[in-house]
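S.,

As promised, the zinc ion run. Input:
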Amino acid sequence: MFGAAVIINVANVPESGMDLDGEEPATILDFPEESEVRKVSPVGYRFNVQAVSGKLIVRGCLEASAEFTCSRCVRRFVQVVRDADFKAIESYADRFATVDLTSDIRDAMILAFPVYPVCSAECRGLCPQCGRDLNRGRCRCVSSSGDNRWTELDQLAIKLEGEDTHGRPKKKKVEE
Ligand SMILES: [Zn+2]
Ligand SMILES: [Zn+2]
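Predicted complex:
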């Protein structure tokens, strides 16, 4: 299979710069076969390209969607992955050079992919004891780890209330 590539001819970039948009197949991201990420859509891009004294400056955004496994409830879900602040600066030798942006695009998109994908911020995950998907209702397990987590958070909140923003006690400790 031929890899996808985004290659810019410096000679085609006018002095005032140019806008460039398009779409490349998902193979541009080179995900390994065994990746948890599936059904990656083509990668769309919208760039502004400038060629300034030996450097190609590219700014714009990248977007693709893919199917992930929720790291809490293991459900499959589709999410749009976006890098709205893509930037690449590549040196070129002369006006007849070509600049390959493929690895810049790949690196930026892979960084934008979530390390711990979550189907929704409210996802309750699986019960650590019986494995039930808690998004579909509670289980009968005696709440241990699940609820302890909240108790710990409550205690942390209480502790933080008694401290200033630097984590120091609000009032000076009275020396005994
Ligand atoms: Zn989930
Ligand atoms: Zn349970």
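The chain has a mean pLDDT of 84. Residues 7-112 form one domain.

- D.
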